[in-house]
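Work Package 3 (structural annotation) set out to generate three-dimensional models for the target panel prioritized at the project kickoff. During this period the team completed the workflow that converts sequence records into discrete structure tokens, so that structures can be stored uniformly alongside our sequence database. As a representative example, we reproduce one entry of 252 residues exactly as it appears in the project archive.
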Amino acid sequence: MHLVKTQRSKQSSDFYIRNFAGVDPTDGTSTWTVYYHDDNNNKAYDAGEGVSDLEAYYGSNPDKKGTLLQGITKVYSQATQYYIGKSAIPKIRGAFNLNTGFKGLNLSAQLLYSVGGYSYDYAYASLMNNDLVGGNNWSTDIRKRWQKEGDITNVPRISDEADPNVNSLSSRFITEASYLVLNNVRLAYSIPEKLLKNQNVAKQITVFVSGDNLWLHSARNGFNPSTAESGASDIYRYSPLSTISVGLNAKF
């Protein structure tokens, strides 16, 4: 997770990162935000004018705070790292239970939730790469890629690795981390005692079906922020499996 303390907020959960500024509609390449000091006063970013670390620059030059101009660059290494106004800390996180019953039937459910905060979706980033065609899987979102001049999209062109840093660390893959999870549902039926009284089988019998991790709602299909404290996804971290159990409890 690329979360670094900043001089501005002193919060280790702030996203201090390069900002993805979109796709150039003329050629389909990625652009990033750069803050620069306009040495030649031409109101345009020129090589060598950029600031690599905004917080560090203002920390060393407090008298120049607010004097930098903002532009875009197509060179990832020239882009400025800065606090983009997003944090991994949710506003609220918790769980609630539901329980109801009627004439021997009992239905219970547990839901987990988190509201607010952002996460870095590393798994999605790996599926939006610019590797050689056929070398890796892609997300279906790759269909939204730039293909001809004038296309307006936030997915860069496919260039068989000709464009470096397409899926490098940037705000492009920072995703809202709110979620709602149906953690467990259990439906049970207790056979009436009067039906068991003369059967010499058991004093009480309850049959049930239970399901775990049955449903998740998040900002992106397949994205599960609940698997990490920071909410970040990983291609080597799997979401809990959905399981269904059927059972019988008997009291003799």
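Residues 14-87 form one domain.
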